TrEMBL record:
<dbReference type="InterPro" id="IPR038606">
    <property type="entry name" value="To_sf"/>
</dbReference>
<dbReference type="InterPro" id="IPR010562">
    <property type="entry name" value="Haemolymph_juvenile_hormone-bd"/>
</dbReference>
<dbReference type="GO" id="GO:0005615">
    <property type="term" value="C:extracellular space"/>
</dbReference>
<comment type="similarity">
    <text>Belongs to the TO family.</text>
</comment>
<protein>
    <recommendedName>
        <fullName>Circadian clock-controlled protein</fullName>
    </recommendedName>
</protein>
<keyword id="KW-0090">Biological rhythms</keyword>
<dbReference type="GO" id="GO:0007623">
    <property type="term" value="P:circadian rhythm"/>
</dbReference>
<keyword id="KW-0732">Signal</keyword>
<dbReference type="Pfam" id="PF06585">
    <property type="entry name" value="JHBP"/>
</dbReference>
Length: 233
């Protein structure tokens, strides 16, 4: 059950008050992981990602592969700790709004499908997958414009630039080869032994998804409540 929301429970801050804003954000994350519909803050304990196109290649020489992830969800944002907040000044459009933090374990689940050709060998695999990103550190840079509605200023975000670092990525792909569990184990081991190489290749797609998730969590709040009403006079 979601705890009863009381607006006075959330401490308002002055514009640009970095420490106050950091503490206030951490309070909301800790006490309202299932969201606060009254202010447009969406649930963070289970976040629906949707579908991801991880790899789309049409290489020469008969080698190509397409990897899609569907029905993806994330667990772990509720354990986020914000460590620094910058840029939330009287005029939020002058520079980037920056939010820095860490997540001890971010769990990503979904159904994967891989199709392709490796020389003369056809590839057609599918199954459920679980990814665990350990000790994820992030910095999100946001850019917005001011919109006026009912003589009030609202912040509309239009650019998200995420920077993400992780200590380890652990992947479990079930039923890769439905009739050969040994081969499934071998492929999973190869993937996890070479996780950094794969992460470097897939990072742009993962960061796009991360940007979308972050926006889905916060942008409704900026649309529902005027920018000035989020702060002390």
């Amino acid at each position: 059950n979601r705890p009863t929301f009381a607006a006075e429970d959330i401490k308002k801050c002055h514009f640009g008050a970095k420490k106050c804003l950091t503490d206030s954000m951490n309070y909301v994350i800790k006490h309202y992981p299932k969201g606060i519909p009254e202010i447009g803050f969406n649930a963070i304990d289970v976040v629906n990602i949707g579908d991801l196109n991880l790899v789309q290649s049409n290489g020469a020489g008969g080698i190509w592969v397409v990897i899609n992830l569907t029905n993806a969800i994330n667990h772990g944002f509720e354990n986020t700790t914000i460590t620094r907040v910058e840029g939330f000044d009287k005029d939020p459009t002058k520079k980037y709004l920056t939010i820095t933090g860490r997540i001890p374990r971010l769990i990503h689940k979904g159904h994967f499908a891989a199709k392709g050709h490796l020389s003369v060998i056809p590839v057609n695999l599918s199954g459920d997958s679980t990814s665990e990103f350990q000790n994820l550190r992030f910095t999100i840079k946001l850019k917005g414009i001011i919109e006026f509605r009912n003589n009030k200023r609202y912040l509309k975000l239009y650019k998200v630039l995420p920077i993400v670092k992780i200590d380890r990525w652990i992947v479990s792909m079930d039923d890769l080869f439905k009739y050969n569990s040994d081969l499934t184990i071998i492929v999973n081991k190869i993937f996890n032994d070479r996780w950094l190489e794969i992460w470097n290749e897939w990072e742009p797609t993962v960061l796009d998804a991360f940007s979308g998730v972050f926006l889905s969590i916060i942008e409704d709040t900026f649309q529902k409540i005027s920018y000035d009403d989020l702060f002390l006079p």
